[in-house]
Design a protein that fits this description.
This protein has about 270 residues and is an alpha/beta fold. Helix content is about 40%, strand content about 25%. α4 links the parallel β2 and β3. The two termini are about 25 Å apart.
């Protein structure tokens, strides 16, 4: 079950959900594409607003199916509203206690989920329960410590330090990408395939979008209040960090990139 201090760092404000809704299989699950085939049954745990979930459902049609699970009613309402695939269903629930029968799915996919959990191994064990024997888990998570940018802005470096502290105070692990093979192994999966991929923001429009996303996020009550409560920074500090993001985005030749860890592993026989 969730740890007492587990708290979703990003929240479900419009700016966050909007960014999540732009994700697709191509941007967030390319490592899984060779495994996708008509007729498979897939679980998308921590599906959020469902943009990847819908894409997965289209790729598994006509006889495959997808179930998206998320703990946020607000995110699921968006997902259900935008759902266009007939082989897709959404269920509200916790990844620690999935409201689904055992031995059901061929694939269980989770994107940017484990980094926010106080006990990712327990969550993966629950995911393992609902997989068929021989089914696979496919997880992808960011590794914040690999984030790098140019031209250098001290305010962005300050943001990254604050993010690490806040995420860990919320019970998560922002450098989850490097931990995925360990967590999957501890949860009882075998035959892991480990890869990495990157997100890079270099084109002017991409830089502006990325900078505005974080400039707005750090001012949202969920993040700002935690920073102030922990006495990590003041409102003036937060405003300066937002300015640093915008200054970086406006600089010619700006660049921001980071690694994601990816693992596909099998449910072995007990």
């Amino acid at each position: 079950m969730p740890t007492a201090d587990e708290f979703y760092t990003h929240g479900h404000d419009a700016v966050v959900v909007g960014a999540h809704a732009e994700r697709s299989v191509a941007t967030s699950a390319a490592f899984l594409i060779p495994r996708l085939a008509d007729g498979l049954h897939l679980l998308d745990f921590g599906c959020g607003p469902g943009s990847i979930t819908v894409d997965l459902a289209h790729r598994l049609a006509p006889s495959g199916s997808v179930v998206g699970v998320d703990s946020s009613q607000a995110a699921l309402e968006i997902a259900r509203h935008d759902a266009a695939a007939g082989n897709l269903d959404y269920v509200r629930g916790s990844v620690y206690d999935l409201p689904l029968p055992s031995d059901t799915f061929d694939i269980a996919y989770g994107h940017q989920v484990l980094q926010h959990l106080g006990d990712p191994v327990a969550a993966l064990r629950e995911v393992r329960r609902v997989l068929k024997p021989g089914g696979v888990v496919a997880v992808r998570d960011a590794d914040y410590a690999t984030m790098t940018h140019h031209p250098h802005q001290p305010g962005i470096t300050r943001w990254l330090d604050l993010y690490h502290q806040v995420a860990r105070a919320n019970g998560g692990e922002p450098d989850a990408g490097r931990r995925l093979p360990e967590w999957v192994n501890d949860a009882g999966f075998g035959n892991p395939e480990v890869t990495t991929s990157t997100w890079t923001y270099a084109a002017p429009a991409a830089r502006t979008s990325w900078a505005e996303l974080w400039a707005e996020r750090i001012a949202l009550p969920r993040f700002r209040n935690k920073v102030v409560d922990l006495q990590l920074a003041s409102d003036d500090d937060i405003a300066a960090i937002a300015d640093a993001w915008r200054t970086w985005a406006a600089a010619p030749g700006g660049w921001f990139s980071f690694i994601h860890g990816e693992v596909i592993a099998a449910k072995m026989a007990d």
